[in-house]
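Continuing from the previous page...

OK, I double-checked the sequence for Inositol-tetrakisphosphate 1-kinase against my notes and this is the correct one:
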Amino acid sequence: MFGNKRIACWMSEKKSQKVKWAEFEQVCSNYGYELFKLDLEKDIENQGPFSVFLHKLTDIIALANQGDAKSKNTINLVENYISTHPEIIVIDPIPNVRQLLDRYKAYSIIHATDLHKHGVFTPNFCEITTSNNQKTVEELNAACVTYPFICKPSLGHGSKKAHEMLIVFNEGNLRDCKPPCVAQAFINHNAILYKIFIVGDQYYFVERPSLKNFHASDQKTIFFDSSDVSKADSQSSLSVLDLEDEQIPKTRPDPIILGKIACTLRKAFKMDLLGVDVVIENFTGKYAIIDVNAYPGYDGFPNFYHALLKCIVDQVNSGINTERKHNLKVDCLNIIKTN
Ligand SMILES: Nc1ncnc2c1ncn2[C@@H]1O[C@H](COP(=O)(O)OP(=O)(O)O)[C@@H](O)[C@H]1O
Ligand SMILES: [Mg+2]
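Thanks. Re-ran it with the corrected sequence; updated structure tokens here:
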């Protein structure tokens, strides 16, 4: 009935539980596609043929990068399968996902875009590769990373550890940073974060809680788990503004700028499924991109499965493959709906 219009889909058990499979299958079928849940424990070839491979392999790629033998084997099998079937549209290509997992690499890619022309920046950052504090001081200075800075593990996925972060307030506490990690200047933004969800040429954004304002001081390092901070229902004590900060005026986000960010990062990372965390700096009103994720949760994205199928069909029709170029015909993406 579907010919070879079959979508192989793989995601972790945890992510899989959040998917409304019956609805997703129905939407696929409305677009003429059969949805197939790929089993990576079994031979892939025997489960094919497929025209599309949709996946969230971030954690497995991250584990493979850290040397985990089983994950390495799984990724090898998947990459071999893709290379012997170059006609399959992969969303998103594994090499493109891989470069996003390294926070330093991801920030470097954002930094190299022309978003600064639109009042958008990625906060100053550098890698911390050594426990030699003198060397770290030099690296921080060279990259103009000031205090306080937020210290994040270099590898942004794969384990709980990827989300164990620190806010470092002074040189005296540099020893708290455990390399390999990335130091990123802390941007005061009154504890409001915007998550942009990108699906091909469509995007949507939501407001989320974030960290309160901090200033350089002699205070001790704050250790926190980032997964407790910016979920829709997070209630971290680190999000409660100091009394004097409650008066700081709030800047409403400009959907056009968020669209420019979405469009530019989609091109820069050559990926269709992206989540971008943006904060608006107090007083300057500039937009700081602080995090980019592959295939985010899309919580609240209206008619997500339709948007996803539209994106898949666009890719299939454009005939662009593994090394997709994203020669976008549009300057900005289509916003679904603003809040
Ligand atoms: N440079 C920064 N300045 C201010 N707050 C930040 C900065 N980077 C991250 N944060 C805060 O820390 C949280 C976690 O950081 P993020 O890089 O998004 O980690 P994760 O990969 O775990 O999502 C963000 O949601 C935001 O609240
Ligand atoms: Mg984040």
